[in-house]
Request: fold
Amino acid sequence: MMERMKKYCFFVMSLFFIACITQYVFANASIEKHEHNMHHHDEAQRPVLSGKVDENGIRIVEVKASRYKFEPDPIVVDLGDKVRLLITSTDVTHGLAISEFKVNVSVPAGETQIVEFIADKEGSFHMYCSVYCGPGHAHMHGTLVVQ
Ligand SMILES: [Cu+2]
Reply:
């Protein structure tokens, strides 16, 4: 009888130990993973933000459109920024469209058009010319990065 009690106690204590060790190992693993992610996040080279935030908190970015590119490219903004693009075409009429932010504006040669949107989605978004501007038109792309 005593022997069986001892065995039972040993069995229960073993289970307890195994549970503790498992808990410890998993907890450590998740902390390490978390730290690794944080570290990775800090280390990642973030592109420099485009333009300047004015006194009203609006990020103003001057964009130059010309055959067949946008400058700067990429346009980089912070998540949540109110963005105002001042788009100037230096040669022929171009368009600037970013579908995800319902941006689509036509910019006549030599003129500047203003378009505003709120960068409420994180990620890289396709920016493209939406007005035929010559043989390279289909390749006139850019990227909006919301980080
Ligand atoms: Cu075009």
User: Anything to note?
Assistant: The two ends are 68 Å apart (CA to CA). The longest strand covers residues 58-66. Strands lie at 52-53, 58-66, 69-71, 75-77, 82-89, 94-98, 103-107, 112-118, 123-128, 141-146. The chain is about 30% helix and 35% strand.
